[in-house]
């Protein structure tokens, strides 16, 4: 569909929020706490964070929650009864205030959950989500969306993209999908027609730092490089990078029992953990941290493009911001680009 | 249709066979007949077996697709789930989802000799192919099975080994590691690679299928090469830790290759293309 | 830190140590660990007030340890951690050389860990005023209020285990939380999994934590989990006297006094 | 509504309290039947996590009991345990876990009557406190879906 451009007055956003609430939508929006910004169930418009460059956590757990039931079971006299999850129970959600690098990440996550086998749980959750993207008017040294094919005003992944026209200005709303249109129809009068809509000059400038196609080609011959060992020496093997990442999808499946009843739960896992790949025999194919750091980079910049035809990185820079030991993915990618193999 | 990808079939344990210390075989039947009717698989594929409330564990389907109405699995009690499975009794209900992964290209092997080389608990993934081949015996020329274990006690499928021994159309060689023999042991004594070298099966028109612990595999491949086997004619299976079984959970990949989707069956030629991460 | 750079070069050039762990400039205003293995790399060493990461977390890391004898640029919290680690037989004089950086930013090279211990013991471990105030505030709450406080604070935790990774005392190759026979702690990061994980972490660090705040600094969500270990530290002081890591290895939780006082056992 | 019957889990040492509880029975002293006893070689063996596990699985109250100081079968197990209890109890209190629901006691093999009294007193006080709904709510994860925020 053609992207329809409308004007949304700055004081209309709150009205839009209230209308969505009246239409019994659950709204997840960024809020700040302890100096970090995270998506939370927004009860009211007040307090929604706007000044942040990027939220500390990505918005992925709307469609891929950190812990979710995949089935319930109960043992009874007749044997066993097992029940899958009821997709009708999943609420309609508006994801408010998503940056373009998160919105585009939804597509990358979807590729993982839909190559070959289709993951209905993920797909059903996602189908209930309407994404309100907010383009970026500022960036920092961790941002590199433009190096992986994105940009601060990228419409990909959003159903409606809002761009603030100047500090304290009104918003340009780009209605991108049918889903977005459905939301607009709830509050038609807030989306005004206007001739004077501009966006490019209000977007943040994010310089291109590397060529991702070139990195991919380099990585084909980079598996044995010593670079992995040197770069990963200070990595402590936590899962912070994976858990804040908008496209990391590794998970674990765990059973939780209470007497004769219980559930099977899918929960996040990280390729950075030393026990991630360990066999019951004790053998570990990725026995050292450098192998695990390599897996993270290779998966995003070599394996995913090869197998899924998408890159597994949106350039949001979160992993580098979250890393307790300053493992900076951008810096490493640049150094890979510079190294001659 | 399953409710979702993660929904297992309910399976009733029909028979439990004690194979070796800590090793059991379950014969599993579908609780719902409708499930059984739509279920099909091929030799080499695997599944996720689960004890409700404990978790899931990955292993192969050890019975051949030529035998209908049930599946079998053989496992060694080692981790959380296999311990719980081991505690199950006949009649208990467990979960199974699958089949996943690729298959042994049995159809392509028509008219060839088959050489099976297995070590220890790695006979189960091969048993599926062996029976599949034996059930279609006319399609193949000579069938040779070389199977070794640490001790006589550790040999699995003892009854079937007897069957194979008695069959005229199968050449079975069993061996145990030095000092693993019992006083009445009549088989070979020595490590599998040594025995392969000693038996020296012909590589001409022969497909070799090798499954076993990494150390056995490592020393068997050079022996086969010496006997003239090409990398394309040697098949093996890879085992990696898995959670989902269908290419999403992120554990089993060796480089670009997902063991759960592109494997578990690989030729030696394919294996040589993979980075050393398995 | 001209002294440090000079000394680092000497140590590497003369092969006294194979690797020196210090700080270098990181991204933006961050600093990060630097592993000096070649004398030239020593020029990148820095030291200033931003250098708060507890580098002692690296002396038990397999990949670092395997390089051979290590030297470490150690601030007071790092030195305390090293003494605790030494008392738990994780480091010793043969594999670690300590280049101490005093609270006045002076460099002292210690001949051995006994000297480090003597130095460390000059300074008592004190909980900072802001956190002290927070502890007081929590203690004055009712039990139900505290429950709510922790449920709220811990709910964002997604169990990335950055707190564990950054802690020098969490060097176990297999943590209790990774055990599944029995499954002590639920793996998913739901309310129960988070609560039990943080209780377990705090109790396993009781009498070992030297209050460096590495866990809190590492947390990508800035959850004040260090309050738990600080509470344990404050209580240990109250019940069993001032705590100092010591080479004698008389760990708080693996020793006892026949006259330990309590008021709740019937 | 039926009266609330608390579920109590007792972690006791083999040598003193377990024998003491046995004596309570053989002396035909009647006491509340709400308690499930779990026997350990020594109080020193009672891991903290087990107490939390008891709450996970629906206990409303916990009794931890062993030999009096200086009477430990292994000389010092109860001294170690005491030190740990001091710290663990304080940590529980700090995280908002209701420490009134965890009773610690010393009961020797000769104190059958004391065991009965401890159990009765615990049952009475837990009955007054009611079921431990706060913890059960958290532990009953399978009933409830965890999503964001």
What is the element layout, followed by pairings?
The complex is a heterotetramer of chains A (341), B (278), C (266) and D (149).
Chain A: E1 4-8, H1 12-22, E2 26-33, E3 36-41, E4 67-76, E5 79-84, E6 93-98, H2 100-114, H3 120-127, E7 129-134, E8 160-164, E9 171-175, H4 178-186, H5 212-219, H6 227-232, H7 240-244, E10 251-258, E11 261-268, H8 289-308, H9 318-322, H10 329-338
Parallel strand pairs in A: 2-6, 6-7, 7-8
Antiparallel strand pairs in A: 1-9, 2-3, 4-5, 4-11, 8-9, 10-11
Helix pairs in contact in A: 5-8
Chain B: E1 9-20, E2 23-30, H1 33-38, E3 46-51, E4 55-60, E5 71-76, H2 80-86, E6 93-100, E7 113-119, H3 123-135, E8 143-149, H4 158-166, E9 171-176, E10 188-189, H5 192-199, E11 206-211, H6 214-226, E12 234-237, E13 253-254, E14 257-258, E15 265-267, H7 268-273
Chain D: E1 8-13, H1 17-26, E2 35-40, H2 48-56, E3 61-66, H3 77-95, E4 102-106, H4 112-129, H5 133-139
Parallel strand pairs in D: 1-2, 1-3, 3-4
Helix pairs in contact in D: 1-4
Task: Provide an overview of this structure.
The complex is a heterotetramer of chains A (341), B (278), C (266) and D (149). Chain A contains ten helices and eleven strands. Chain A is α/β, with parallel strands linked by helices. Chain A has one domain. In chain A, helix 5 (212-219) crosses helix 8. The longest helix of chain A has 20 residues, at 289-308. Chain C has 266 residues and is α/β, with parallel strands linked by helices. Chain C has helices spanning 2-13, 62-65, 76-87, 113-120, 129-140, 143-154, 162-166, 191-205, 214-218, 226-240, and strands spanning 19-25, 31-36, 70-74, 96-101, 107-109. In chain C, strand 1 and strand 2 form a beta hairpin. Chain C is globular. Chain D has one domain (8-143): Rossmann fold (3-Layer(aba) Sandwich). In chain D, helix 1 packs across helix 4 (112-129). The N and C termini of chain D lie far apart (36 Å). Chains in contact: A-B, A-C, A-D, B-C, C-D.
Classify the helix fraction of chain A into a percent range: 25-40%
Largest sheet, strands/sense/barrel of chain B: 7 strands, mixed
**SSE pattern of chain B, N- to C-terminal:** EEHEEEHEEHEHEEHEHEEEEH
Derived structural class of chain A: alpha/beta
How many β-strand runs of chain A?
Answer: 11
Overall mean confidence score, pLDDT of chain B: 92
Number of helices of chain A: 10
> What's the N-to-C terminus distance of chain B?
34 Å
Stated plainly, the CATH topology of the largest domain in chain B is called Rossmann fold
Low-confidence stretches of chain B: none
Unreliable spans of chain A are none
Number of domains of chain B: 2
- Give the rounded overall mean pLDDT of chain A: 92
Largest interface chains and counts = A-B, 51 and 43 residues
């Amino acid at each position: 569909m053609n992207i329809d451009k409308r004007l949304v007055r700055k004081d209309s956003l709150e009205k839009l929020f209230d209308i969505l609430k009246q239409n019994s939508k659950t709204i997840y929006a960024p809020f700040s706490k302890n100096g970090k910004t995270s998506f939370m169930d927004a009860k009211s418009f007040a307090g929604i964070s706007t000044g942040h460059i990027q939220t500390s956590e990505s918005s992925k757990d709307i469609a891929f929650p950190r812990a979710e039931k995949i089935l319930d079971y109960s043992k009874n006299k007749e044997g066993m009864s097992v029940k899958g999850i009821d997709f009708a129970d999943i609420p309609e959600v508006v994801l408010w205030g998503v940056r373009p690098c998160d919105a585009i990440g939804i597509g990358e996550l979807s590729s993982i959950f839909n190559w070959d086998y289709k993951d209905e749980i993920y797909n059903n959750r996602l189908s209930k989500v309407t994404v309100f993207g907010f383009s970026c008017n500022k960036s920092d040294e961790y941002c590199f969306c433009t190096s992986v094919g994105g940009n601060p005003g990228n419409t990909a992944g959003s159903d409606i993209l809002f761009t603030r026209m100047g500090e304290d200005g009104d918003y340009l709303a780009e209605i991108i999908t049918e889903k977005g249109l459905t939301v607009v129809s709830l509050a038609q009068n807030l989306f005004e027609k206007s001739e004077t809509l501009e966006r490019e000059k209000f977007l943040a400038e994010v310089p291109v730092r590397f060529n991702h196609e070139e990195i991919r080609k380099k990585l084909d011959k980079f598996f044995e490089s010593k670079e992995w060992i040197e770069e990963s020496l200070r990595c402590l093997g936590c899962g912070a990078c994976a858990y804040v990442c908008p496209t990391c999808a590794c998970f674990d499946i765990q059973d939780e029992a209470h007497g004769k009843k219980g559930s099977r739960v899918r929960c996040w896992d990280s390729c950075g953990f030393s026990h991630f790949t360990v066999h019951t025999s004790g053998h570990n194919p990725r026995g050292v941290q450098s192998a695990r750091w390599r897996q993270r980079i290779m998966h995003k910049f070599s394996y995913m493009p090869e197998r899924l035809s998408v890159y597994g990185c949106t350039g949001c820079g979160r992993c580098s911001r979250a890393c307790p030991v300053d493992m900076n993915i951008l810096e490493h990618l640049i150094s890979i680009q510079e190294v001659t193999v | 249709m399953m409710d979702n990808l993660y929904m297992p079939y309910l399976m009733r344990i029909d028979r439990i066979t004690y194979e070796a210390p800590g090793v059991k075989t379950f014969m599993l039947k579908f609780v719902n007949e409708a499930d059984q009717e739509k279920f099909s698989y091929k030799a080499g594929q695997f599944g996720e077996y689960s004890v409700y409330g404990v978790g899931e564990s990955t292993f192969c389907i050890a019975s051949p697709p030529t035998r209908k109405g049930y599946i079998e699995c053989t496992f060694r009690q080692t981790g959380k789930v296999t311990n719980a499975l081991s505690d199950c009794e006949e009649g208990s209900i467990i979960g199974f989802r699958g089949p996943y992964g690729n298959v042994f290209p049995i159809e392509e092997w028509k008219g060839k000799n088959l050489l099976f080389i297995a070590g220890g608990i790695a006979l189960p993934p091969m048993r599926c192919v062996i029976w599949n081949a034996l059930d279609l015996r006319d399609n193949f020329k000579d069938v040779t099975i070389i199977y070794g274990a640490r001790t006589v006690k550790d040999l699995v499928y003892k009854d079937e080994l007897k069957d194979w021994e008695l069959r005229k159309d199968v050449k079975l060689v069993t061996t145990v590691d030095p000092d693993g023999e019992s006083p009445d042991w009549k088989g070979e004594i020595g490590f599998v690679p040594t025995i392969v070298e000693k038996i020296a099966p012909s590589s001409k028109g022969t497909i070799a299928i090798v499954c076993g612990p990494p150390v056995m595999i490592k020393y068997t491949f050079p022996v086969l090469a010496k006997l003239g086997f090409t990398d394309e004619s040697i098949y093996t299976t890879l085992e990696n830790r898995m959670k989902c079984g269908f290419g999403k959970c992120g554990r089993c990949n060796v480089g670009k290759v997902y063991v759960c989707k592109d494997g578990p069956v690989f030729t030696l030629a394919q294996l040589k293309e993979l980075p050393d991460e398995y | 830190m001209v002294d440090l750079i000079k000394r680092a070069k000497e140590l590497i050039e003369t092969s006294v140590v194979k690797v020196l762990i210090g700080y270098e400039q990181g991204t933006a205003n961050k600093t990060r660990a630097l592993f000096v293995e070649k004398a030239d790399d020593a020029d990148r060493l820095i030291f200033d007030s931003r250098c708060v990461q507890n580098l002692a977390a690296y002396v038990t890391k397999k990949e670092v340890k395997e390089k051979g004898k290590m030297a470490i640029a150690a601030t007071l919290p790092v030195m305390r951690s090293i003494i605790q680690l030494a008392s738990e037989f994780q480091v010793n004089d043969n594999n670690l050389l300590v280049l101490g950086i005093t609270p006045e930013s002076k460099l002292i090279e210690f001949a051995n860990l006994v000297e480090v211990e003597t130095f460390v013991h000059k300074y008592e471990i004190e909980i900072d005023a802001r956190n002290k105030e927070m502890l007081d505030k929590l203690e004055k709450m009712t039990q139900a209020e505290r429950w709510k406080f922790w449920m709220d604070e811990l709910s964002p935790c997604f169990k990335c285990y950055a707190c564990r990774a950054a802690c020098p005392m969490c060097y176990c190759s297999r943590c209790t939380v990774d055990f599944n026979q029995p499954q002590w702690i639920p793996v998913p990061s739901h309310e129960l999994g988070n609560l039990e994980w943080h209780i377990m972490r705090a109790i396993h660090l009781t009498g070992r934590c030297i209050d460096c705040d590495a866990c809190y600094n590492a947390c990508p969500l800035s959850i004040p989990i260090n309050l738990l270990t600080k509470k344990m530290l404050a209580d240990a002081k109250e019940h069993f006297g001032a705590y100092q890591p010591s080479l004698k290895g008389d760990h708080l939780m693996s020793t006892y006094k026949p006259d330990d006082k309590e008021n709740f056992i019937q | 509504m039926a009266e609330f019957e608390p579920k109590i889990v007792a972690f006791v040492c083999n040598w003193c309290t377990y024998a003491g509880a046995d004596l309570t029975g053989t002396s035909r002293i009647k006491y509340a039947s709400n308690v499930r006893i779990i026997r350990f070689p020594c109080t020193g063996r009672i891991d903290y996590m087990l107490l939390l596990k008891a709450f996970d699985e629906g206990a409303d109250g916990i009794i931890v009991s062993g030999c009096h100081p200086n009477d430990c079968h292994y000389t010092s197990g109860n001294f170690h345990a005491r030190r740990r209890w001091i710290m663990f109890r304080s940590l529980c209190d700090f995280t908002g876990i209701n420490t009134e629901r965890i009773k610690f006691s010393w009961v020797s093999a000769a104190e059958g009557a004391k065991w009965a009294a401890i159990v009765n007193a615990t049952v009475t006080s837990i009955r007054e406190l009611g079921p431990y709904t706060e913890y059960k709510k958290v532990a009953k994860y399978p009933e409830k879906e965890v999503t964001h925020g």
